[in-house]
Amino acid sequence: MSQSAPSPESTLDPRVRRTRQWIGDALVALLQEKPFAEISITDLTRRADIARVTFYQHFDSKESVLLALVSDFFERLYQLFDLSTLLQTGEAFPQNGVGPLPVSDELDLQQAHLVQVALEEVGPAVRRLAVTSFAQALARGGFSRSAVEARVVATYHVNGILGLLESYLNNELPISSAEFREATLTLLRLLPLDSTRSAILQ
Prior knowledge:
Number of strands: 0
CATH superfamily: Tetracycline Repressor, domain 2
Number of domains: 1
Mean pLDDT: 77
CATH architecture: Orthogonal Bundle
Radius of gyration: 18 Å
Largest sheet: none
CATH topology: Tetracycline Repressor, domain 2
Number of helices: 9
């Protein structure tokens, strides 16, 4: 079973990580109170109990805070699956070996709201970030094809999953959380990932 590489956040100095965590927590808390458009940098610094200059030492905008939170979300989401197994068999199992993990169980209401806000406010950036994150997860899982082919697979997967997720969060899909989980896993299983299948790009 492959070992996941540490996320960029986990390699930061503990003090930097702690401050970024405070700012991220402040944004998550404020989103429970008002729309993203109404949240100011002043709101964030007050809630995080930090100076404005400290905020700008870590982020250049509230959008960059939102993207950092979503980046962490996608890193955790992709780490739930053992991509080395998926590459060989087409079956995605969690790294603890217990069996298929319900994706929807990991999407608590706070996380779902965060992803929804990010898709509404910085959708293109979220998609680029998610594609990059999944392509990196493929590489860690042993994807043996070129970086371009990994990008093709990641783009296909991410756009399918995010489209499905947007419809699900907007109540446009009359399906249960279990059906949503199965749909996401089915999309993963349909991808031509392992090196024994035909080339994606000719």
